[in-house]
Amino acid sequence: MKFFIHVCTSLLLPIVLLAQGSVYLVLGSDTAIWDGLSVNKPHPILALELYTDPSLNTYKVMDPAFRDQFKDSYGRTMKMTWWMMAGNMYRFSTNTNVPLPNVMTMYLMKKYHGNNIKRFGDELSLHYHTFAWTDYNNDGQYFWNQAKNFNECKEDFNVTMAQYLLEENIFPASFRTGWHYMDNDWQNYIDNIIPYSMHNDYPAVRATTVEPIDNVFDWSKASKEFVPFHPSLTNYQLPGDGKSWNTRSKYMANFKQADMDSLFSKAKNGVDQLACLWAHLPEKDFPQNMKRIDSLAHISAAKYPAVKFLYCSAVEAMQRWRKGNDTIAPVITMDEVVLGDNVTFTIHTNEEIFQSEPFVAMKTVNEDYSIIHCTKSGQDQWTTASSILRSDIAKIGVAVTDTLGNVATLFKNFIPDDVYLDNLDSSYNELRGSWTTNSIRAWGTDSRQCTVTANDTASVQWNYTSHDSGMVNLFVQFPAIQNQVTALHFRILSNGVIIDSVDMSGPLKSNEWRYITTAHVQQESTYAVQMLAYGADQAGKIISADVIKLSRLVKERKIYTSQTDVYTDPVSEDDSTVVMLTVENRGIHDLTISSIYALNGEVGITTPAPLVIQGMKKYSIPLTLYFNTIGDRIDTIVFVSNDPQNPKYNVAMHFSILPYFRIVDNDDSVGYSEFGPLAKSVAQVWGASSRYALSGKGASARFTTTVKRNGLYQISEIVPTTVNAVTNALYIVRHGADTLGRVTIDQNKGSGNWVSIGQYNLTTAAPVEVKVIDNGPSSNLVLRADAVRVQLLTPSLVQSSLQHGINTFALEQNYPNPFNPSTTIRYTLPNEMFVSISVYDMLGRNIRSIVNEEQRSGSHTVQFDGTGLSSGMYIYRIRAGTFSQSKVMMLLK
User: Fold this and answer.
1) CB-based contact 722:750 (threshold 8 Å)
2) Phi (first) and psi of residue 5, to 5 degrees
3) 123: nearest Cα among 135, 112, 110
4) What is the pTM of this model?
5) How far apart are CA 349 and CA 563, in angstroms?
6) Which band of pLDDT confidence, cut at 50, 70 and 90, is reported for residue 563?
7) Which distant-in-sequence residues (6+ apart) come within 8 Å of 818 by Cβ?
8) pLDDT score at 287
9) CA 104 to each of CA 84, 160, 194, 438, 494: distance values in angstroms, whole numbers, following the listed order
10) What distances in angstroms separate CA 884 from CA 481, 811, 829, 837, one per listed residue?
């Protein structure tokens, strides 16, 4: 049996043979979504506006009026290569406004800008960062750190490659790695898959172990020439015997006229030059950098009139540089061999391919993605290495390139792909009511809404034609609008006849797929899904219409949790916490969970079994975690059920027990209070929300707790990642009747992470209070409040200075150390006196005076900001009366 083949080719101009060489310019973007991305959130929600908002960069650079300004020596419009980011943070994001979160950047680029990508001849490919959710320093705080080696991310990389192929029909013939990171394991792996890489970042090198870890790379030994080379399989930086290619890249803003002139000069001497010049599409100056590079190229072209430069996609540039004139992709065929209930696949190509074996990806009916390996079974022929249960397969995809990088793909659908019908699609119709457009949406770029009137009906309809027969699940999603109706009626019509009807009531939770029903559809029949709101008992409320989903992945019973690895927030020793784990039945029949147990016994489960979860319903199970020793723990919750695919379903619980601490969140009704016009913000980093108020409105917030141990404590604050917070928030620390510290903090610096307010001796005798105050009006800035943490550093059997007084000097080690860019210095004075604290470099030069005033007795803190200083060791020194002491600190950028 032969299947349909889709071929992608590059259209090349005839190769012009000149005495001089040519300059091939590959302009591109490592293209991510930054809005909503956070290294301390295991499951972020990302904003899509970069691709959907006409005022932002993607629309600007895809505008033909903008792009056609830039021409190469042959009058061709500037081409771009879009290396679209996927994997790890994207894969585990919780977006429901795209079909598959992991491939959202590619999906959005194709959906909203696909026509112009074809017009310009742009290339779409893969950009991948080796993020791993880890706690390398074992401090209980997990981050999306840069992995220590590629093998930690290999499984995620494979899933990402499979999803790009199966869901977006993209197979990367060119590639750029995140941070320019590469190691030999990764180089050896992609050497068998991807022909061209463009991430040689000579001479850059950087190393750090400070979490969150990123931007670790080493290209100090690589070639400085803009000439492609085969990387060595034993040292990725050096030329060697790998069959793939790598070439030098440079950040657009760092590429100067002298660099461009050097390319043209070397081409004039007969050496073809190929330069990858990249930036990030979300950067505000991205369009300006495109324009600047074009200007540099034309200036150099005027200096070297015999040298021609070409704007090329990455693959086209490599093909031209290699003097290849083959632009025809391979032809793939695939035969299915049935072995009872199982199948294997034999794959043929009509020519030699670059890959060591065809890249074969599979999606299962359970929506799992994997790579299927092949063995050689003849000339240009391979067979899948193992047989597969045919009923498990939803889709198979195959991709290859020839030795020049021309891409061919082939697909076989065993189950049709999901279908999404938006209110902007031609399939959508409004039947009754006065509908208007709302920019608040759950899908696409807008939604429609209608105010329901008494004794009337508002209704809409989505139309759908089925091209084969089978069962289909229907879902709907609602935007987060106010005053939404609480009762809806759905009708399913086949060729105008009602075949099913469903009532939906209760609060309509926004931004999640709500199951409607399961219907049986017939081949080439027309269906309609109608949604109606009646005015009785809900006059004046609003019905919203946005998107429905039709999925042919209908299962009898399927146990599902949104995460199979659950990472809880750190918990204090000698404490316990309750985590709610939501278990779903994604099948249409009842799921019976016969038993639930924890393998290691560190998780308490009180939910009785057997537990029955109805078809397409959810159930929240409370899990109690018990802790009495410091360190990381893992326990596995086992669900035994009548799910035919997963009769034993495991969920790994990861939790960290830290030295004793207390956290007060803004949602804590006992420990949190506020004064002035603070409002709820959906921006959050701790808990479900945060609070904010415009500067100058007299707002303040207070966090109060008690401790159950005497000792030295680190007090820290956290606010959501922000750029518009006040720069001089005043934090006042009180213990009982005593004020222990007054610290001014720029809430933008370190936002999204815990920021030190200082170290203080605390006892059980009195409450601890941290008050944050807007310390003066700042135009268009906001005071933020989210959470405060009080963490034990050194327990003490002696009562603190709160009770006994302070009778000695002390200068403590700064915290954090190393730091970037700011750190807190704590010191103690026995009497009121004049104090000076200065910072020196290692040559003894005075860098900055940070304290120079009369101060009262007691504990004090001061912040030192190292912005503008280079990484390295510094000395801070206190002089107070006859007391003088110095300590060393490290700034690590």
Assistant:
1) no
2) -120, 135
3) 110
4) 0.81
5) 39
6) confident
7) 210, 889, 890, 891, 892
8) 98
9) 9, 11, 22, 23, 33
10) 62, 9, 12, 10
